[in-house]
Design goal:
alpha+beta; six-stranded antiparallel beta sheet; about 35% helix; globular
């Protein structure tokens, strides 16, 4: 089982999330009542809809993680799953995203439309570290 499959299986057990096809047309999505929260695009790449406020609040922590890729103007972050710790990071961020979506004022501007699929190229960490 891939890391993304393990993460998807764990998240599907959460009572506030429902599974379905991703609105971008690629992969599976998990959504709450109001919005799509997570898109599983491949065996390792996951887009997470955090909201603008959550990204601003955690920007420095997100930018410091080698597993996270931020796209300027997007309310989604891309999480690259390379190890079990990345799954745990994703679980924590999904929890933050759920809270952010529950408290987001209706109609609040969300930045670039859609997830980061086709906006992000994530290289494996060993390729980046190896030069």
């Amino acid at each position: 089982m891939t890391l993304a499959q393990r993460a998807l299986e764990r998240l599907q057990a959460w009572p506030d999330l429902m599974a379905g096809p991703a609105s971008c047309g690629t992969g599976r999505a998990l959504r709450c009542v109001r919005d799509e929260i997570v898109h599983f695009h491949s065996t390792r790449d996951v887009d997470l809809h955090l909201t603008r406020r959550a990204i601003q609040r955690f920007h420095y922590d997100l930018a410091a993680s080698s597993a996270i890729h931020l796209v300027p103007g997007s309310c989604w972050v891309t999480v690259h799953l390379d190890c079990e710790a990345d799954i745990e990071l994703l679980m924590s961020l999904v929890s933050i995203a759920l809270k952010a979506h529950q408290t987001r004022p209706a109609g609040e501007e969300q930045g670039l439309a859609g997830c980061n699929f086709h906006r992000v190229t994530v290289l494996p960490r060993d390729a980046v570290a190896g030069g």
